[in-house]
């Protein structure tokens, strides 16, 4: 690629509005379903985001049915029940503590990689949590890129969700409602930290 | 917004290529600087990404000078030294364990929010790590959206970085080289898990 063309890789300002500047966390949902194919497209985008040694620890359950939502209901904080039950889809973002079993295939570059994690549960857990959360960021932006709105939430009982939905080696991380949000129901946007409060140039 | 227009929010397929499908983790950098203004633009996009109770725990140091890079060098894994020293900028992504001090301003919706975290160091740490990592995902995709290439890394001594760069209440998370990557130096891309290996529709 010629050097003079390298800035052609930037996306448009409209795309940055959709992904970041104009996107909002939604709490009320239009009566418009989310096709399963769109859920598959979210994964087929987010899976390409980088993780340490390509470890890819994120695991996702997409709850689309009334039955699945009812299994989640007892674990929800009271103020998260109504919006979650109303959302077309609620995703449970989780991470696999045994992600390293896939490393011989995902990271053939170094056959020792599996042992870095299988020999240290503490390193495996930190790696799964960090990279599973990174993948959560990719998930949210992939969903927005496909035209969906997101409503991510930490207000739930992780232990209850883990017991109801996962084997002991998979841990829930956060929830994310998905659908087409009702912009009339948004709260005013909260402020963010200024650059100089969060960043330094050294 | 009329319902028939809601899918106008999707970004183009070209943008999804730039952010996800064609983007690669780079290890060699063209001799093209990254202006400070672009670093500010990364933050001014990523800051809008959602975090729990708008807690915004990510803190970022942008190392642009030889002096700053030399402070980092002793903490790097041997195989990360050369590419990091060559990169125009290396960002240290960190998180502030005392993020809750900003909640009265960032999350005026509930004045009790500060106490949820100030009363529980364990919850504060998990929240900072989860949401600081989510913000790391926003950071990488914001940088790509602006036309940069990224080289994120976990291969370094966190304790050494913390001691050199941060007060005791701020913890390093991961590093990310930034610049314009040399596509000729890329390795072949590694595979990802299939949808049915990482996801379930319920």
Short description:
Chain A is an alpha+beta fold. Helices cover 41% and strands 16% of the residues of chain A. The first copy, chain A, has a four-stranded antiparallel β-sheet with strand order 1-2-4-3, sandwiched between helices.
What does this protein look like?
The structure is a homodimer of 202-residue chains. The first copy, chain A, is α+β, with helices and mostly antiparallel strands. In chain A, 41% of the residues lie in helices and 16% in strands. The first copy, chain A, has helices at 13-21, 36-46, 66-72, 78-86, 103-106, 113-118, 121-145, 158-165, 195-198; strands at residues 58-63, 89-96, 149-153, 170-179, 199-201. The first copy, chain A, has a four-stranded antiparallel sheet, sandwiched between helices. In chain A, helix 1 (13-21) packs across helix 7 and helix 2 packs across helix 7 (121-145). The longest helix of chain A is centred in the middle third of the chain and has 25 residues, at 121-145. Chain A is globular and about 55 Å long. At the A-B interface, helix 1, helix 2, strand 1, helix 7 and strand 3 of A face helix 1, helix 2, strand 1, helix 7 and strand 3 of B. Strand 5 of chain A pairs parallel with strand 1 of chain B.
- As a percent range, the share of strand residues of chain A is 15-25%
Rounded to the nearest angstrom, the radius of gyration of chain A is: 19 Å
Helix content of chain A: 40-55%
Unreliable parts of chain A: 1-5
Please work out how many helical segments of chain A DSSP would assign: 9
| Oligomeric state of this protein | homodimer
Count all strands of chain A and give the number. Answer: 5
Structural class from helices and strands of chain A?
A: alpha+beta
Question: What's the overall average pLDDT of chain A, rounded?
Answer: 95
Helix and strand string of chain A, N-terminal first? HHEHHEHHHEHEHE
Q: Give me the side-by-side strand order of the main sheet of chain A.
A: 1-2-4-3
Largest interface by Cβ-Cβ < 8 Å: A-B, 87 and 87 residues
The best one-word shape of chain A is globular
Major sheet summary line of chain A: 4 strands, antiparallel
* C-alpha termini separation of chain A: 30 Å
């Amino acid at each position: 690629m010629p050097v003079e063309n390298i800035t052609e890789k930037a996306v448009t300002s409209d795309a940055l509005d959709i992904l970041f500047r104009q996107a909002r966390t939604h709490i009320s949902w239009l009566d418009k379903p989310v096709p399963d194919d769109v859920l598959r497209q979210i994964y087929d985008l987010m899976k390409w985001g980088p993780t340490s040694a390509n470890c890819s620890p994120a695991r996702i359950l997409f709850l689309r049915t009334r039955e699945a939502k009812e299994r989640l209901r007892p674990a929800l904080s009271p103020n998260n029940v109504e919006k979650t039950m109303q959302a077309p889809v609620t995703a449970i973002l989780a991470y696999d503590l045994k992600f390293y079993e896939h490393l011989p295939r995902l990271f053939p570059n170094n056959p020792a990689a599996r042992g870095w994690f299988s020999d240290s549960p503490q390193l495996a857990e930190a790696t799964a949590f960090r990279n599973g959360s990174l993948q959560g960021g990719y998930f949210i932006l992939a969903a927005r890129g496909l035209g969906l709105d997101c409503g991510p939430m930490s207000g739930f009982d992780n232990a209850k969700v883990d017991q109801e939905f996962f084997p002991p080696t998979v841990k829930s991380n956060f929830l994310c409602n998905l659908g087409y949000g009702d912009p009339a129901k948004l709260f005013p946007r909260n402020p963010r930290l200024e650059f100089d409060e969060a960043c330094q140039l050294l």
